[in-house]
Structure formats: structure tokens, C-alpha cells
């Protein structure tokens, strides 16, 4: 996809995520790697009403070059994209169920959601680290985000929400949606004894689809 198509795709995904209630108000942000820098949703923008032409563009050193001012979460997106060279996009949401788990889970915990469904394992992988609470936009979160991103495609920020990467924008969005559904299932099943996928079943999925 060229830059114009990517701008349209960010706006289209933003509209769908907002429409499903996965982002509310002006919460949530999306970034995409370009050959000559990055695209990032503007700060205080509603994901449901993004203007593709006003999406922020940053240079390879993450300096703002055009469009509206970028999301305050630029440090979060930068830490993931610089740690994971294979990642082409990052989605951060305040989606309700993933955020609920992020309020319950202990920082440092590697797997706050059990492997209940194949698509959760296929899209998110084996681990989902929980990063301790930082104020939104706090640059101090970068080392903790980078450390978590080292071995994981996605993470939960305590009391805040999910951060999900993917090789492409589609992949990052689909993984963020799958994470939200898995969090919802985990909460629905809390206090009961659902069957989790076995380690052998998880390995089979990752070796086939990972
Ligand atoms: P921005 O409006 O700066 O993108 O921040 C929204 C958000 O989700 C904070 O975590």
C-alpha cells in the first residue's frame, strides 16, 4: 500500500474500531511504518472521524513533519516499532474488556488471559506481558514497553489498555480485536472452569499459523 492508501486504511480501521466501541471519545491511537518515516493518528482525534489528510507524518527520527500534532503516545509506538523491526503497525486501544483485565492483572505477569481459543493464540501468541502503570503520554514508559515488546506482539498497560503490533495494519487491528474478544471471554468465564487449550494444542497452532 502506498502512503495515500495507508492513510485511508487507518481512517477506515479507526471508524470500525470506534463503531464497535473499542475506542471511545478521543481515546486510542494507530501508527504505521513507512519507507520514509511513520504515520500516526493525531492527538485528541476521534478514531471514528479521522481525516486521512490530517493524519500526522513523522520522519525516521520521529520528528513531526506534517499533518496535525501526533498522539501523545508517540513514545509507546516508537518503543514497539523500534524493538520489533518486523512490525509495520501498532494499535493502542482502551477497549473495555482488555482494559478490565489490565486492571486485574499483576505487572510482570506473562499470561493474564488463558489460551481459550485458537484465534487468540494465532493472533497474540504465547505471551501477553503486563506493563506497570504509567501516566498516558509519559516518555518514562518507553524502556518498559521496549522490554515487553522484545518477546511479545502485544501487551497490556496496567489500568490503561492494550498495545498490539502486527506486520501490517490489518494484522495489528485484527490482533487487537481478537485480544478484546479473548479478554471478554476470560471475564465471562471467570469463576468457572473452562477448558484451556493444552500446551501441545498451542504449539500446533503456532507452528501452523505463527
Ligand atoms: P492521544 O489523543 O494523544 O492519541 O491519546 C489518547 C490515548 O489513548 C491515550 O492513551
TrEMBL record:
GO terms for biological process: pentose catabolic process. GO terms for molecular function: aldehyde-lyase activity; metal ion binding. It is an enzyme of class 4 (lyase). It holds the Pfam family Aldolase_II. Keywords: Carbohydrate metabolism, Lyase, Metal-binding, Zinc. It catalyses: 3-dehydro-4-O-phospho-D-erythronate + H(+) = dihydroxyacetone phosphate + CO2; 3-dehydro-4-O-phospho-L-erythronate + H(+) = dihydroxyacetone phosphate + CO2. Residues 8-187 form the Class II aldolase/adducin N-terminal domain. Its EC number is 4.1.1.104. InterPro entries: Aldolase_class_II_sugar_metab, Aldolase_II/adducin_N, Aldolase_II/adducin_N_sf, OtnC. Its cofactor is Zn(2+). One of its GO terms (cellular component) is cytosol. Catalyzes the decarboxylation of 3-oxo-tetronate 4-phosphate to dihydroxyacetone phosphate (DHAP) and CO(2). Belongs to the aldolase class II family. AraD/FucA subfamily. NCBIfam families: OxoTetrPhDc, PRK08130.1. This is 3-oxo-tetronate 4-phosphate decarboxylase.
